[in-house]
Design goal:
Blueprint (H helix, E strand, L loop, with lengths): L3 H6 L1 H10 L6 H31 L7 H33 L18 E6 L9 H7 L3 E2 H8 L5 E2 L1 H20 L3 E4 L3 E2 L1 H7 L20 E2 L3 H7 L5 E3 L5 E10 L18 E11 L4 H19 L3 E5 L11 E9 L4 E10 L3 H5 L3 E3 L5 E3 L1 E9 H12 L23
Parallel strand pairs: 4-8, 7-13
Antiparallel strand pairs: 1-10, 2-3, 5-6, 8-9, 9-15, 10-11, 11-12, 12-15, 13-14
Length: about 425
């Protein structure tokens, strides 16, 4: 969430960013709630001071009845005011958390269609196979049995496709380790505090993408980013220890609410998939540099895999709450003759860290909120789609990208 003082001092900027991101929030009302909280707190603190004064007078002897009576009245009044304060504070925190992060100056304004291509790489093929028909014909994927045991959009990977996924994981790990990330596995479940603290708050209730565990304060993660953000919750990290760079491997679970009609066929949009995620905790003045570094790592991966792509600077209306700026990498789909989303990387500045109380202690002893960033190294389901579309041969085989051969017994094709 944003700092209330920052909101108050930069009201116009916050209102503009909120509006450009597509959120309908009365920022002035948020500040009114904070004013109300301050007044309630002042009244409570004044009564607490009075209560302490009375308690001090009652020590060391027998207090008179008037003092005892006054103490009772103050105590009763304080109980009521503290209850009121707790309600106002909860309402205020909820309101502040609903305000999305501000956007950077170089973020395009408008909706998804206003996102801007900043670079592209690779030669675009003029034709390609349908990945689902291809994989089913080779007995590499089974959606029917997946639906039988778990419902629609769940699946089994089989035979060579399962081996290809493993090869992609191993290659992705090699690349993130080369770029200074430390490998870490994460819990597949997180508490609501971590989920909300990471900023996974939909604009409307029908857009909730997470699977919640009934009767438990737990939800399945939609990305390792969520669990990685919570890793240093309520911690103060020394400046000399930053940046902290993690690569988290996890299963990802998504309802994909509101995604009907957006490339839903086959493996492109499913309810469960595996993903290797990059995550960085860093000094505020370093986050823009770290953002470009994550993007460069993603580009290395796709260039070495030989998958044509373009990089998109995502428009404000498609950013979501936590990000101040986001790049997407879209691969060239020969089957559809268009670009389709493959990975993303976001600079969330201090938005997530403030939610989860993650701070840095500077060398001079001062403490402040640090910055967080995330980026996809390899999203396995979509990457397999991209590989099949770009490497399937006319004779029905799948040519293996050069960098994956060491993980597939140095075969030339599958």
């Amino acid at each position: 969430m944003l700092d209330v003082k920052f909101i108050r001092d930069n009201l116009e900027l916050v209102e503009k960013s909120t509006r450009e991101k597509g959120y309908k929030i009365d920022i002035k009302n948020v500040l009114k709630l904070d004013d109300k909280r301050k007044k309630e707190l002042a009244r409570v603190e004044e009564l607490r001071r009075k209560r302490n004064e009375i308690a001090a007078k009652m020590k060391g002897g027998k207090p008179d009845k008037a003092l005892i009576e006054e103490g009772k009245k103050v105590k009763e009044e304080l109980v009521g005011l503290e209850e009121d304060l707790a309600k106002v504070e909860a309402e205020c925190v909820s309101a502040v958390k609903s305000v999305p992060n501000i956007i950077f100056d170089d973020v395009p304004l408008g909706g998804e269609e206003c996102s801007v291509e900043v670079k592209n790489w690779g030669e675009k093929k003029k034709e390609g196979v349908d990945h689902l028909d291809y994989a089913v014909s080779r007995d590499w994927v089974d959606f029917e049995r997946g639906a039988k045991v778990a419902g629609a959009k769940f699946y089994y990977l089989k035979n060579e496709l399962a081996l290809l996924e493993n090869a992609l994981i191993q290659f992705g790990l090699k690349k993130v380790l080369e770029n200074g990330f430390n490998f870490i596995t994460v819990p597949d479940l997180v508490t609501s505090q971590v989920l909300e603290g990471t900023g996974f708050n939909p604009r409307t209730s029908d857009q909730s993408d997470e699977y919640f565990i009934e009767g438990e304060d737990l939800a399945l993660i939609a990305t390792a980013e969520i669990a990685l953000t919570g890793y240093h919750m309520n911690e103060i990290i020394d400046e000399d220890d930053l940046p902290l760079k993690y690569a988290g491997l996890s299963a990802c679970f998504r309802k994909e609410a509101g995604s009907a009609g957006k490339h839903t066929r086959g493996l492109f949009r499913v309810h469960q998939f595996n993903k290797l995620e990059m995550y960085i905790f860093c000094l505020p003045e370093k986050s823009k540099e770290m953002h470009e570094m994550i993007l460069a790592t993603e580009e290395e991966i796709w260039q070495e895999l030989g998958i044509p792509y373009r990089v998109i600077n995502i428009a404000a209306g498609d950013l979501g709450a936590p990000a101040a700026k986001k790049y997407d990498i879209e691969y060239w789909s020969p089957a559809d003759q268009t670009y389709r989303e493959l990975t993303s990387c976001s600079n969330c500045t201090d938005f997530q860290a403030r939610n989860l109380n993650i701070r840095v202690r500077r060398k001079d002893g001062t403490v402040e909120v640090l910055h967080t960033l995330n980026g996809t190294a390899v999203s396995l389901a979509r990457t397999m789609v991209a590989v099949i579309e770009n490497y399937a041969t006319k004779d029905g085989k799948l040519k293996i990208p050069e960098v994956l051969k060491p993980y597939l017994n140095n075969k030339e094709e599958l």
